[in-house]
Fold these 2 entries.
Entry 1:
Amino acid sequence: MEKSLNGQIAVTGYHSLQEFKQQIKEGKLKTKAQFQLLSLRDTTKFEYYVKRYPLDFAVERKLIEGNRKDLFCIYFRLHRCRAANESLLIHYPKALSIYAKFHSLPEAAQMEMVQQKKLQTAVKYIKRRRLCDKALAFFRDHADKPLIVFYDRLYGASAMAEA
């Protein structure tokens, strides 16, 4: 891997895919070079990189804060977010919806989501995943009736028995 940050950024942004692949075989990119991957229009280099290495914490955070469904689908299919970034997901419904397709949020993040009563976020999550027992109990006690009915329709009588 190019040792200098400028060299890594150049390989990431301006060199051919073949040159990029050759450089990646030698090791991870520095954080600023990983940020470059998020700004590329073509997702080929991003996908090639994340198949080999997870993104650094700050880059993962920037990914979540971004609005790139294509990158969400690639990254979340391959990696779970770090715990602190999983809690961040509840503030980004589009990212959360795609993340929930592949992974469940930990109990703490689910509790934060239902306690904030963000309807759009909760709906996007429960369309794909059941709530854990603790979050479901809080949800049943505090959510609006139509949202509880929606959850029960999705998960049937077993969801009602859990309460």
Entry 2:
Amino acid sequence: MNTMEKFLSHFSFSGAMRNYVGVERERFLKNTEGIYVPQAKRFLSEIKDPRWTYELSACQVEDRTDPRDNLLELKYDLIRNTNSGILVAEKIGTKLVCEEVASYDMPLDVFPTERYENISRAISTDRLRSACRVAGIHIHIGVGSVKDAISTHNACVEHMEELIRMGDHSSGERIALYKEMAEKWEPPTYENTEHFLETALREGFADDPKRCYHFVRISVHGTVECRMFGITPHEDEIIYWAEFLTQITRGV
């Protein structure tokens, strides 16, 4: 297997999922006194739902929708996840909080996985704090091939500044913290598959595409992932973002 074949083997492109949309949404956990609490592990053990998972900060949980080709169904998925999450958070004495940026003095506990513990040891306290303090919404657009992925990726990059403004609810604070955390956050416009591989080799994510932290990235799930959106409690706003993305990427 040559370098290109090895790199592309990380991605699961599927023509059947082309133009489907999925959402990942991060939220903080606070106790009844409004203090951030590292209770993600307990929350997940109670909810027992594969649509819910962890993030770097142990004060944060993430819910995911199924891939949908119907945005009304996507909205129902978001509402369902919120309702079940609220109930479980209350059960363990916490609440789900829609905040783009947590306070500076929040706990810096990370979720107990080897990957996250290695990350927390490898980066400075300031970068760890920046990473733990931000929460966002990631929207995935299904693509059928690497060629399709590059075209879709480039369409999103072309509109990136507009997408950042559209999803900003913290006057740019979340975006600034994300840039401090990610460092290599700016996505290029890929000329072709070779340029995609060259970028991955240069920036150190060829062996693990999850280490790409661009605001727009080609995901191992066979999607183009837009990571610039902040947090909103309004499902209709998320659907608006998803609809905008489908409009700028459909037919590219």
